[in-house]
Amino acid sequence: MLYTILAILLILWLLGMVTSTTMGGLIHVLLVVAVVVVLIRVIQGRRVL
Predict the structure, then answer these.
(1) Helices (H), the chain
(2) CA 21/CA 39 separation, integer angstroms
(3) What are 5-30's pLDDT values in tens digits?
(4) Which of 2, 18, 26, 34 has its CA 20 to 30 A from that of 46?
């Protein structure tokens, strides 16, 4: 399940990188990293905040 979510996020991230400017791409990368970290913590059963 985690790999499916990761694959979907990577595809969406790549689409965002292709269609955005450089600064928008950087913000996109940071958002994707934040979402992946939160998902991993939730799946592992740890508190998010």
Answers:
(1) 2-19, 22-44
(2) 27
(3) 877 887 877 777 676 665 666 777 77
(4) 26
Residue 23, token pair as written in the block: 């600064």
Residue pair 47/37 in contact by the 8 Å Cβ criterion:
no
Phi, psi at 20, each rounded to 5°: -120, 170
The amino acid occupying position 3 is: Y
Q: Is the distance from CB of 39 to CB of 4 less than 8 angstroms?
A: no
Q: How many CA atoms lie within 13 A of 2 on its CB side?
A: 10
Give the whole-angstrom CA distance, residue 41 versus residue 17: 25
DSSP code for 45: T
d(CA 23, CA 8) in angstroms, rounded, equals 22
